Amino acid sequence: MQLKAIFSGLFIFLLGNYAIAQTKVPPSNEPAIIVGQPLEETPTPEPIAPEGFEKTHLVDVSQNDALKAVILAQLDAFRNQDYSKAYYAYTSSDFQNTVPLETFKIFVRKSPALYKNHSFVLQSVSFAGVVATVKGTLKGNNDQDAQAEYQLIQENGNWKIRKMELFGAPMSQEKK
């Protein structure tokens, strides 16, 4: 075993010396090219979450407020039966391309947790890439609470709902 380690170390030493011997040192007025680095400068990648946040990180209070404000505004539109506003003003273009307005209306009308809610209690906010995930509880009338998970993305500087899921929420017959 010790002999193997000696040979490995010797091989690395010889390989390193061979690479050094093959390297030509340019005159001081020419830029050096160092093996293992790109020849061209690569652009710095765009941050995938707000500056100062890691890939999955709880966001600061102002971010929480901005995300929660979008959810609360949509819930208010549901309570007022303004489904077009809830759809066009607060959902992302991805959502709108995937879910037609009529399907959205049917889903909301069958979800009393959405249209009969009286508050939303924020539990957590985290980022995975450019997506903010907001988890909370929709407080409904008659103690009909439901767990909700929203995914939001930014479009033109505004947070938009990309996905919403309800857990433990009873579905009803379509509301007229």
Compressed to H and E, one letter per element, the order equals HHHHHHEEEE
Question: Low-confidence parts, pLDDT < 50 over ≥5 residues?
Answer: 1-59
What Rg, in angstroms, do the CA atoms define?
Answer: 27 Å
Mean pLDDT across residues? 74
Helix content: 25-40%
Head-to-tail CA distance between termini: 80 Å
% residues in beta strands: 15-25%
The CATH architecture of the domain at 61-167 can be given as Roll
The CATH class name of the domain at 61-167 reads Alpha Beta
**Class from helix and strand fractions:** alpha+beta
Q: Helix count, per DSSP?
A: 6
Strand order of the largest sheet: 1-2-3-4
Shape: globular
Largest sheet: 4 strands, antiparallel
Number of strands: 4
CATH-defined topology of the domain at 61-167: Nuclear Transport Factor 2, Chain: A
Account of the 3D structure:
The chain is α+β, with helices and mostly antiparallel strands and about 180 residues long. The chain has a domain of about 110 residues: Nuclear Transport Factor 2, Chain: A (Roll), CATH 3.10.450.50. The chain has a 4-stranded antiparallel beta sheet with strand order 1-2-3-4. The radius of gyration is 27 Å and the shape is globular. The N and C termini lie far apart (about 80 Å). The N terminus is likely disordered.
